[in-house]
Amino acid sequence: MATKAIKSRCTWAESDPLMRDYHDTEWGVPERDSRALWELLMLEGFQAGLAWITVLRKRDAFRKAFKGFDPAKVARFREADIERLLQDPGIIRSRAKIEATIQAARIFLEMQKAGQDFSSFLWDMVGGKPTRTEEPIPAQSPLSVEMSKQLKKRGFKFVGPVIVYAFMQAAGMVNDHAPSCFRRNVSRRKV
Fold first, then answer.
1. Is the peptide bond prior to 30 cis by the omega test (within 30 degrees of 0)?
2. Is 12 a catalytic residue?
3. What digits encode the pLDDT tens for the residues 106-156?
């Protein structure tokens, strides 16, 4: 009887089935869609001070609460929407993070109106293609410091260099899969 080969993953992804699935299908896959990148950056901001598994468990509720992370819809949120979100147990209920997300939607739309594609803006800062980090994996990098600076300059919040580095990892801008991880050389969603 043949035995099924055990996949070697990044150690952070081993503890929970949701984390394993996220690792195996999303994390580190180069994302080029502006709306999807914006959603990911917002979720990384909500994660600040918490574990990523918390965000993953609440991601569907976040998507429902923030209208599919459609920047045009989120940009129209007003105080009543903020109050509604603050009462939603399905999401992380931080007024500062909710307000930052609404403001970020408005900034996203301003950039779009000015002819600046959000995806191009981000990917241009990393040279248009993923980079690879060797061990030990840093908490931030010179690129994340610069991206953080540029995002803050435009008015984004919860985009410090550590949050931005985690975003860059998740969005596939930097490949930080462990050398032994089966996803190290894979840059697509399906495995």
1. no
2. no
3. 999 999 999 999 999 999 999 999 887 777 787 889 999 999 999 999 999
Catalytic residue at 52?
yes
Domain 11-175: give its CATH code: 1.10.340.30
Longest Cα separation, the chain: 62
Would you say 183 and 28 are in contact if contact means Cβ atoms under 8 Å apart?
yes
DSSP reduced 3-state for 131: strand
CB of 183 closer than 8 Å to CB of 130: no
Helix 17-25 to helix 52-65 angle, to the nearest 10 degrees?
80
Residue 44 a catalytic site member = yes
Euclidean distance between CA atoms 88 and 62, whole angstroms = 9
Out of 27, 31, 38, 44, pick the active-site residue: 44
DSSP class of residue 16 equals -
CB atoms within 10 A of CB 84: 12
Q: Which of 22, 27, 38, 165 is catalytic?
A: 22
For the whole model, what pTM was predicted? Answer: 0.92
Q: Considering 12, 52, 99, 146, which one is annotated as catalytic?
A: 52
Quote the tokens at residue 101: 């997300």
Distances (CA, A) of 161 to 47, 60, 103: 14, 26, 19
| Residues above pLDDT 90, as percent of the chain | 79
